[in-house]
Amino acid sequence: MRLQLTEGNFKHTDFVTACGWVGNDLYTCCDDKIVHKLTSEGEDGGNVVTLESFPTDMHWFPSANKKQQSDMFAAACSDGTYMLVLRNGRVEKKVDAHKGAVIAIKWNHEGTAIATAGEDGVVKIWSRSGMLRSTLAQTDSSVYSLAWSPDSNSLCFSSGKEVIIKPLQPQAKQLMWKAHDGTVLKVDWNAVNSLIITGGEDRKYKVWDSFGRPLFASKPLEFSVTAVAWSPNGELFGVGLYNSIRLCDRTGWTYSREITETGSISSIAWTSDCTQLAGAGSNGAVVFGQVLERKVEWQNIEALLKETHKVLVHDILSDMTEELDFRDRVIGMAVGFGYLVVTTSLQCCIYLLQNLNTPHIFDLKDTVNYMQLGDKYFLMVDNNALTIYSYEGRVISQPKFQAMRPEVFNSQTVSLSPDCTVLIDHSDPKLVRVFETTTGKEMGKPIQHVLDVTSVSVNRWGSSIQRKCVIQDRNRDLYVVPVAQPLQGGKEPVPFKLGTMCDSAIWNTETDMLAAVMDGKLMVWYYPNVVFIDRDLVNQTKMTKDASDLGKDPQLVHFHGTHVTVRRIDGAHLSSAVSPYPIALYGIVARNMWEHAIQLCRYVKDKTLWACLAVMALAEKELSTAEVAFAAIDEVGKLQYVLAIKDIPTVEGRNAELSLWRRRPDEAEHILLGAKLIYRAIDMNMRLFKWDRALELALHHQTHVDTVLGMRARYMAGMGRQEDEASAFLKYKEGVEINWDVIKKKIEAENEKEANRPGARPYQE
pTM of the prediction? Predict the structure, then answer.
């Protein structure tokens, strides 16, 4: 990826202090007190308005979409005032704001408030109509820059060498840290990824998370960093300094460094589609930068944005290259699952990779901010909606929930599978919402987590029953939780913690394998479903590799087949291989060829593969295969339990024991009671030492009360304990005779009755 810079033909007569885009037009303010309008090619569009004092900063009112473009901007002035100016140049309002110059001004994301900062070190919040709401902060030095938080509930601003995050609520605690060794000149806070970038006089730019933790720090550059700005989608940011502009990835490393003849860059502004930026120069020049050579990859296919209207598709295996030309400027590209989807400023084109000549094309209502491809469907996010499409271009659904902000969704906060779509609720980041892909309706209650969730990803392999997602919280802990609704009688799913210090996690595109980078190690769970079947075997079904060479904050990019691709913080891509045998095992099990699966494991002679087979067999209730697998990994206790389950004569009894193995006693009891296996349900509760529930069932069904009381008495005697005076067992023991001969005969009768049930049959090999 690179930035192609061109200097506009129009040159201002003085220092350009700020700039901002509206549609395809760029508005600039200059020390000649004139607000100018320029086209996207840099041609003069005329003077908009001449202000009474020198403008220092400007910010356009946030617009919802391209059809309803903003018609007003706020301009900060050197005489301590700020103005609200309409697009036609009429000054709507002038407000006395600060003592000394107003240096920075910003609308919040909803357009309901304005924040100003000045030479007097004061930060103030104003209503849309220009009424003072609050004086947020008073500092000892001039505040050169400020930015709103993604939820518009906090402000981030600079004060000397420090950066401060101040919540709007008076009682809330502010966060302050030393960000640079020199004065901090610029800050920006992205609404999509919640990351903060800063630039200072120490010639460095840095990336921080919303808690002030450093993620990236550049080496000292040639000159002071005078401008930084995020692209709206949070994937890129621009850095401006003397005669230079850098295009950087969200993790901090530089894609390209371009030389200009503008002097110091005072301001950088991005277009809403993230394809173009503009830089305002101190010598009056304005430069325009096009983001080119963006690349997307999938298996052997590579798509490259060569020019603004041209995409090259290259098949690495056949060395064939196809050139695709578009009528409008290309905004976004995504490739995967046999398709290439390209969005322009007006249309969406869907190509089948086997036939690039006849795409499905449909018109777009708004600029697309993000795309994600899946097996059957793909989703697109714009400022107004999250829409799921088929690969024929047909709208499938539009998932919605209250207070939803579609513009902030990205690869971290939304995940698509064939039957469900998982979203993080930005109004309450502790909630993860699950929607049906085909209808857009919410599936049951949201998944509730204890901390704010920062990343979510759902698996694509298997049926809807096997659907699960991994969530990563702000403590960088990784959890896996089932998405499928629990069976009647079962409890809500509880997330299982896979590990801590997680940098990134990704599902395999072909199987159910999960890869993650944790604490300097690359970990691959060959069968993550193990946590819901037999979590004792989690470590036996996991591969761990040393990944210390990946450095800080590595990101998993792809997990195709046996290859995991990781991107380091410097942008380098590294590939790591995993064993091919689990993938082969998935294919064999999917075809119910259990004898072949056993033969494969015997050939490989790997305990990890045997453990995977054991859990897969339990999931599919293949007890004979599980018996062989547990014997191979020397799990004698589990082997004996499998043999005991095989001896149970009824299908419901075996299913209940398997539910018990999965640590779902409520579900097991529901199965037994539904099948009218009352004694087995009572016996199960006694084995689990749930004596009160066992007595409750016995009394309710008026059977085996003496059995429960006798077993309880034997248990208490063995423990050397006495029943409490208020115990229900003492109360009912008075009128019940405990005769062990009778109890044994009743148990034998129950076993014989169960064996002779109409549906009872021994386990089929």
Answer: 0.87
